[in-house]
Amino acid sequence: MTKIDVSDIQGFSLKGYNFPFARYLLLELQHHEAAREFVARLLPEITTGERWNINHKPMSTVNIGFTHQGLVRFQLPLPSLLSFPVEFQQGMKARGDILGDTGRNGPAHWDAVWKEDRVHAWLAVNARTAGALEERCAAMEQLMRESGGARLLQAQDACAIYLEGKPSTQEHFGYTDGFGNPDFKGAEREHVRGQGKLLADGRWEPLATGEFLLGYADEAGELPVAPIPHLLGRNGTFMVYRKLHQNVAAFRNYLNEKTKLYGGGKEKLAAKFVGRWRDGTPLEISPDQPDPRLAADKYRNTDFTYGEDPAGVRCPIGAHIRRVHPRDSFGFNGGLVNRRRIMRRGLPYGEYVPEGQPVSDEDDRGIIFMALNASIFRQFEFVQQQWIEYGNDARQGNDKDLLIGSHDGTGKFVIQGTTDPKNPPFICGGLPNFVELRGGDYFFIPSLTALAMIATGTVDPR
Amino acid sequence: MADRSGQVYGLTILSPIIEDEGLDICHSMELRWYLGHLARDGHSPFAQLSSTYLARLVVMDDVVYVGAPACEEHLKSRYLVFETNFDGDLDTYLKRMARETPEFVDAVWKHCVGYPGVADVEAFAAYMKKCRIPTTFFFADVNNRTVQQTLKALQTQSALAHFIEKYQGRPPAEIQREFGVLLHSMREAPLPRAGGDETERLPSENRPHD
Known about the structure:
Order of helices and strands of chain B: EEHHEEHHHHH
Distance between the termini of chain B: 28 Å
Largest sheet of chain B: 4 strands, antiparallel
Order of helices and strands of chain A: HEHEHHHHHEHEEEEEHEHHHHEEHEEEH
Radius of gyration of chain B: 22 Å
Number of helices of chain B: 7
Helix content of chain B: 25-40%
Strand order of the largest sheet of chain B: 1-2-4-3
Structural class of chain A: alpha+beta
Strand order of the largest sheet of chain A: 2-3-1-4
Mean pLDDT of chain B: 89
Strand content of chain B: 5-15%
Mean pLDDT of chain A: 95
Low-confidence stretches of chain B: 198-210
Number of helices of chain A: 15
Structural class of chain B: alpha+beta
Helix content of chain A: 10-25%
Oligomer: heterodimer
């Protein structure tokens, strides 16, 4: 059995906190001595992966990650800096051609803070209440001031959408989000069907730890590419941060417009886009109507495969969740997808506007999408390039993901159907950009040990 | 036949590159320079050879021993490696190369030992076959359709998808009438050019994961 040292791993790398409030402080590090001092002082504040006592859940959490430019600022030894994977050294902006971050998604349209290479650190504060968030962020800013090691460039707020006074997991288009992160060995969590890797006999088991944490064997039985020395990488991981603006007006207009022609009705059409009804019910299990009990049942809402639906008449082959987690779609009992899994974190930002009320694409709203994986190149970038921005693996030709693909008004999405007039085949053409990238970067989320090494200037690659 | 999978032929040719120490710029260097500037889109000579699925030209310099203890090994010569998958039989393809892309063939194979030129098509085909090595096992992801059938199928698929998107939900009589127009236009439509549309940048241009 894989044993991982949860007290050495940043909590964010292991679990979603499910707190409704977050602020991502985007920092520019200062002189290396002051920056190290800042990390040294921050170290006791970092939330680890240790289990919380049910009666003493913290009010807020703190986690930190660095871009490669940030690590350069600490004056890490050159052999260590150069030992990081190339895509991390390059940063997300330089990978734009591969990721499809061009045109409307290109850096010219990003928030100013991401246009230059000045974001060295991502300091994340998650909190249970707005008050706790303010309090912790104030403490963080005080640390920055006192140490002189970091300057706040921008504070990005994010917050769960409140429905009927309660925080929800819904995003701005109205879909319930956040089902099923991949389970991996050593993670302290309940094993749920549909959340690890599919075995030949139909069982699911956790993925290898090394798919998500550096220093452990991955699905190929190898240690993932990691910086030297080993201790700098071990228990760390890589994070992709993407601020995804949502064109809610464009989405609602498009859905309403296409509903006029689609025989299955508006909600079914919305479900076909994603592969889940907007309440989260998987189309593959319940193709005809949403089922709130099923959607809320954590033992059932990720427990499905596509093998019985090769033609996509229940869940379209190009639907969002079938693309990004194809399960058994490609045969070999899912063996082709086990090295392409990512852990997702994220929260919406901006004001939620209920359906039926006036809304504009110019409003600042969307989702802060964060993906964690051991290899950005092999995992996130592959999913983005091959499964979001291209359709060949799903036998959908050049078609992109309807929801988050980078479109130019000419793309299409095919909904496979049957002779049932309530489930007709349908083609959605003229796709606009429902989601647009507003910036982000690649971050290294070090272990507590690695943070201490960085803080004390004792990273020794020899 | 080992060099054939369905109707697709898998050709491998190794042509020794001329060694001439008296030259300022050696043949392999000139060849690399030429190949490096060869068009890869619809202007590629292989787009003109319209039965080509995929072709690759590589200068193989030498072998490098990987392992310990290090040891020095050498090939007898530098080679030009030519790999291509195409429809039909070998003789027809080689003769088409000589007849339809003579300048390209000359510019490449003039750097190779024993190249007879393209004026004598039979001699060129015989030369190429002499340099051929059995491919024995290859993979061509083409469903055993010809290049032209594949291009036509893609054209039809695209036109049909566009048609459905445009007319879905319209009255049956209108759909039927417009479908007749579509069928007619598809029959009349010229076959798409091989080698792709250079106005569109293919996702494959940036696909390090392949």
